[in-house]
Amino acid sequence: MRFDETYSGNVFIKSHPNYEESKAVLYGMPMDWTVSYRPGSRFGPARIREVSIGLEEYSLYLDRELDEVKYFDAGDIPLPFGNPEKSLKEIKDFVRKVLADGKVPIGMGGEHLVSLPVMEAVYEKYNDLAIIHFDAHTDLRTDYEGEPYSHATPIRKIADHIGPKNVYSFGIRSGMKEEFEWAKENGMHISPFEVLEPLKEVLPTLAGRNVYVTIDIDVLDPAHAPGTGTVDAGGITSKELLASIHEIARSGVNVVGFDLVEVAPVYDNSEMTANTASKLIREMILGWVK
Predict the structure, then answer these.
(1) 149-200 tens-digit pLDDT
(2) Is 262 left (phi over 0), alpha (psi -120 to 50) or beta?
(3) What pTM was estimated for this model as a whole?
(4) Which of 255, 283, 217 is nearest to 47 (CA)?
(5) What is the C-alpha to C-alpha distance for residues 43 and 263, in angstroms, rounded to an integer?
(6) Which runs of E-coded beta strand occur in 20-98?
(7) Residues 235-243: contacts with CB within 8 Å, 24+ apart?
(8) CATH superfamily of the domain spanning 24-288
């Protein structure tokens, strides 16, 4: 595995050209092998990079510029088409290397299953890890129609791995009744519908903790992000999600990795979804990479 050059030509705006000198590493996970409704999220990382050229380098929210953060864009991890098991292994091996080099992993999906090996690798390094999860869906199924590794199962799998009490989900508005019952019985935090206010209540309890943040773009209402595989009405606004990112930045938590997944550009001719995702990633980099 080489880090002296990116896997692909396009890079996110103002990424640093040198891996060794960078504090964080941005990478794509172009996989949608297990989606149950609409495929296409494997094209998300590349398009998010392409539209990032339209971003301002300065964040008025955080009074910080991308020049102030050295992050390397490694491009998309080359994943074997149609092979979830091998793809997950490739992702975990990549992230283990990034973590071993003392850098913060920043992932772009891809379906939400790609977050699982990343969170597992981060937990190997930080055994006090907590997960903050923004999503329309619980993702707490044990399997989807007999398949245990599915975009509907990553949060259940990481909860089983690190303990349900260490997982905090926000913006949830869809899931099986059994999933909500399991979360309640096992002490997992689920905030239905809302994000910002319940997040403000939770963050003080995580002060000093190492935290991984995973954002499924479908936490946004389809009016704000129609370009995703499983749209779900009744979501939050992009303004609310940006405010949540900034709230985490101001809190006492130590963000040791994060990702944004499920952008499927083909379903949004306006490119609103990819452009929104690009801005969210800019704010996460500026707010969470110290």
Answers:
(1) 999 999 999 999 999 999 999 999 999 999 999 999 999 999 999 999 999 9
(2) left
(3) 0.96
(4) 217
(5) 8
(6) 24-29, 58-59, 64-65, 71-76
(7) 235/136, 235/171, 235/173, 236/171, 236/194, 236/195, 236/196, 238/276, 238/280, 240/195, 240/196, 241/134, 241/195, 241/215, 241/280, 242/61, 242/279, 242/280, 242/283, 243/196
(8) Ureohydrolase domain (3.40.800.10)
Place of tokens 């009016």: 223
Provide the 3-class DSSP secondary structure of residue 151: coil
Binding residues for Mn(2+): 112, 135, 137, 139, 216, 218
What integer best gives the mean pLDDT of the chain? Answer: 96
Tell me the residue type at 147.
Answer: E
Question: Phi and psi (nearest 5°) for 40?
Answer: 130, -10
Q: How many whole angstroms from its chain centre is CA 231?
A: 17
Tell me the two tokens of residue 140: 């707490």
Q: Which residues are annotated as a binding site?
A: 112, 135, 137, 139, 216, 218
CB atoms within 10 A of CB 47: 23
pLDDT at residue 6 tops 90: no
pLDDT at 158: 98
Rounded Cα gap, residues 227 and 247, in angstroms: 26
Half-sphere exposure at residue 284, Cβ-oriented, CA atoms within 13 angstroms:
25
Q: Strand pairing partners for 168?
A: 132, 189
Per-residue pLDDT band for 1 (boundaries 50, 70, 90) equals very low
Question: What would the mean pLDDT of 68-78 be, rounded to a whole number?
Answer: 97
Residues of the chain with pLDDT > 90, as a percent, come to 94
Average pLDDT for 110-139: 98
Cα distance from N-terminal residue to C-terminal residue, the chain: 26
In the chain, the amino acid numbered 221 is: D
